[in-house]
Amino acid sequence: MRPVAPKLVGAPVPSEKDRMIELKWKGLIQSSSTMLCTSNHTEKITIICNVDLKTRRHVISWQVRNNRSPTALFQVDEDFIVVGTEGGKMEIWSID
User: Fold this and answer.
1) Where are the domains of the chain?
2) Cα–Cα distances in angstroms (integers) from residue 14 to residues 24, 43, 44, 61, 66, in the given order
3) CATH architecture of 19-94
4) Contact 43/12 with Cβ under 8 angstroms?
5) pTM attached to this predicted model
6) Which of 52, 82, 84, 93 holds its CA 20 to 30 A away from the CA of 64?
7) What is the pLDDT of residues 17-63, one digit of tens each?
């Protein structure tokens, strides 16, 4: 049985098909920060946010409503990510 985290009020409903990747980004961020890209299969949302591990602060940089539910995330290079969606479709985004 998997441990269950407490639910946050207003947070999207989690799914087994949700994904998260760390982005390699050429923008200026703190040394204790990282850029994360997360997808929510149920809500059809993909979010890119800056997370500071030292202060536990996070800032949502970009939020996109997908046409279909996202199933996979890949970073092509520092400028582009590919979001795979249900039905075998791909969305290519510039993160510059």
Assistant:
1) 19-94
2) 25, 9, 11, 20, 16
3) Beta Barrel (2.40)
4) yes
5) 0.74
6) 52
7) 888 898 887 766 677 788 889 899 989 999 888 888 788 777 888 88
